[in-house]
Specification:
mainly alpha, single chain, about 200 residues
Length: about 200
């Protein structure tokens, strides 16, 4: 079902700018991943939840009572609902890890890589617009735009690089309980955005 919905959303959004499609795709993937975790949260150690989904307890509780279609609508926003802390000290790993990553670590690396790649693509397309869209500081944007896919994949293995919501709990609650258009959700997101450092 989700695949069909995502394909339908993609076909219906071919007229929107490429950066919007990238943002919407990131929102959908992040929300669906968290929704699946929320559906099985009773089987997941809460310390694991706190480690890989910091500051997202309220969001996970909300997602636990939603169906897939509602999650897809919740993610339909032209602004990023999630962010990650990018800084100049993030560098590609110099050696491969000695142990295989666990399920959550592997999924987090994949999510972080896609987020890094979309941000690099955006700032390479338009540096100023990319910085504004993803709320990137100038030194951080300059730092990550010099890396290619292989280096970004190495960087994404950093266990401290986890995605967290920049949309407030208010955004998710309102967007989940009201029949808002994508444009209205984007406006709501603008008004309810929270600081990237507010959960750390």
């Amino acid at each position: 079902m989700m695949t069909a919905q995502m394909e339908g959303a993609t076909k219906g959004s071919l007229h929107v700018p490429t950066y919007e499609r990238a943002v919407r795709a990131e929102n959908v993937k992040a929300m669906i991943r968290r929704w699946r975790i929320a559906q099985s949260s009773e089987l997941v150690d809460q310390r694991v939840i706190a480690r890989w989904f910091p500051g997202q307890r309220n969001l996970l509780e909300l997602l636990a009572v939603l169906v897939e279609e509602e999650v897809m609508k919740l993610a339909d926003c032209s602004l990023p609902l999630f962010s990650l802390l990018i800084h100049p000290s993030l560098m590609p790993a110099t050696s491969a890890p000695l142990v295989q990553p666990g399920e959550f670590e592997a999924a987090n690396r994949h999510e972080a890589f896609l987020a890094l790649a979309s941000r690099v693509d955006s700032i390479k397309t338009s540096f100023a617009e990319g910085c504004v869209l993803y709320d990137l500081a100038l030194p951080d944007a300059v730092h990550i735009r010099r890396f290619g896919p292989h280096e970004l994949w190495d960087i994404a293995a950093n266990p401290g690089l986890v995605m967290f919501p920049v949309a407030s709990d208010h955004y998710f609650e309102v967007a989940a309980t009201r029949d808002l258009s994508s444009s209205q959700k984007s406006q709501l997101m603008t008004m309810s955005k929270r600081s990237k450092n507010s959960i750390h």
